[in-house]
Amino acid sequence: MCGIVGLFAKTPEFESQLGHYLAPMLLEMTDRGPDSAGVAVYRNPVGDGQVKLTLLSTAPWFAWQDFEHALRNAFPGVTGLWLMGNHAILTAHAASGDLASWIRANYPAVRVNSSGSTIEIYKQKGLPAEVAHNFGVSQFVGTHALAHTRMATESAVTTEHSHPFSTGEDLCLVHNGSLSNHNRLRTQLAKRGIHFTTDNDSEVAAGFLTWRLMEGDSLEAALDRAIVELDGFYTFAIGTRDGFAVLRDPIACKPAVIAETEQWVAMASEYRALAVLPGADQADCWEPAPGRIYSWSH
C-alpha cells in the first residue's frame, strides 16, 4: 500500500501557494506509506539550451565541492550547482545524457533523480513529515507537483527505492500497486538500452514509458500500450512539463479520487488528502474510471 497525490495550479495565484497545499496533502497519506516519501515539483524553468538535473548522493558526507570542481572541468557549460541536503540541482549548457553518463562513470554514489528543463525530484527514506520538512515542501512555488508515500512490499526500504521515478526529460511516475511481470520486462527493457538502478517494480513501469516515448509514442499512446503490457494492479500519476496524467488499471482495485475547481485540479489515493484544499467541499469530485487516461496541461 502506498499513497499518491498530485496538484495542478490553474491560476498564477495558486502557483504561489502550491507547496502550502501540497505539504498537508502529503502528510495525509502518511499511514499509507511511512517508509519513505518523495516529491516532484515543476518550477524555475531554465533558459533555452540549458538543462536541469536533480542529483542525489547516497554516500554520507559526500564532497560536493570536489564533485563540482571535476564536473566544471569536464563540462565548461555548467552554470550552477545548488545543494539541498543530500540533493543538488545542477544546471548546464550541455546534453543531459552526456552529463548523466559522466556522473554514472565517475561518481557511482551520485544518482540522477531527474533531468529536463523544469522538473526537480526530492526523495528520502523516513516519515513524510520529515521529508516535507527537510526539503521545504510547504515553500514550493510552481505550476504543479506529484508526491508519494511508500509502504515497501516487494523491494528494500531505501531512498533509492523511493518514488517518484524519472521516465524521461521532465517526466516522472508515482505508483500505488504492484506489477507481477516486472522482472521479465526489466530484462527486455535493459536489452533495449533502458537504465535501471533498483529492483523496484515501479521503476520498470517508468522504464517502460521511457522506452515507448523513445520509440516515438505520445504520452497517451505510451499509457495505452502500458495497459496492455503491464500486468498487475496500479494507479499511476505521471508528471509532464506541462501538467500531469492519471491512469488506473482495467480492474481498478487501487483507490483514486480526482477533484477540480476553477483554481486547481488534484488527485489522491484517498479523499482526505483533497479535503485540505480550499473549496474542496464545492469541487467537482469523481472516481477515475478503470483503464481511462485523464490528463491536464497548461
Tell me what the structure shows.
The chain is 27% helix and 34% strand. By secondary structure, it is an alpha+beta fold. The strands form three sheets. Strands 7-2-8-1-14-13-15 form a seven-stranded antiparallel β-sheet. A five-stranded antiparallel β-sheet has the order 9-10-11-12-16. Helix 7 (201-214) packs across helix 8. The chain is globular and about 55 Å long. The model has no long low-confidence stretch (mean pLDDT 95).
State the main characteristics.
single chain; 298 residues; alpha+beta; seven-stranded antiparallel sheet; five-stranded antiparallel sheet; 8 helices; 16 strands
Short account of what is shown:
With 298 residues, this protein is α+β, with helices and mostly antiparallel strands. It has helices at 12-15, 18-28, 64-74, 96-106, 128-134, 182-191, 201-214, 219-229, and strands at residues 2-9, 36-42, 51-57, 78-84, 87-92, 110-116, 119-125, 144-150, 165-168, 171-179, 232-239, 243-248, 257-260, 264-268, 284-286, 293-297. The longest helix is centred in the C-terminal third of the chain and has 14 residues, at 201-214.
